[in-house]
Amino acid sequence: MEIRFIIPLLERLGYSEEDRVDGCTIEMTIGSRKVKGEADFVLYDGTNRSRDNVLLIVEAKRNGTRLEQAVEQARSYAMFLGAPFYLVTNGDDLRVFRFKSALETDVEVFQGTRETLGSRFHLLHGSISKSRVADLRRVLRR
Predict the structure, then answer these.
(1) I need a labelling partner for 27 at 20 to 30 A (CA). Which of 5, 39, 51, 73 fits?
(2) Could you tell me which residues come within 8 angstroms of residue 10 by beta carbon, excluding any fewer than 6 positions away?
(3) Is pTM, for the whole model, over 0.85?
(4) Using alpha carbons only, what angle is made at residue 71 by residues 90 and 44, rounded to the nearest 5 degrees?
């Protein structure tokens, strides 16, 4: 699914191979415990892998898998990495969220299916294209 669906989707959204880290290990501290997770994809604005430069987290699950657990997993990665957006998919369903903060409820900015993606791609592009998210990051840094 990742090679045939997610990577082409990310490319259509303007992300290049140099922006992408596949299988990114994330070290998180929960209470006094250190926990390691692995995000399927972390997208940056170029090769700078700093927290200030992360744009999007992508969590991919098997076809037919319910996305609720993936949403929580991707949200925790977004929180620890400082990503403004996260995307979860099982190859059929696709959901995108704007990460607000650890204490606020995130905003779902896109929900669709692979079947409806063609007719609704402009909405997805307007939310999480590389140029859109990179511009937002620049505004937030000021």
Answers:
(1) 5
(2) 20, 41, 43, 58
(3) yes
(4) 85
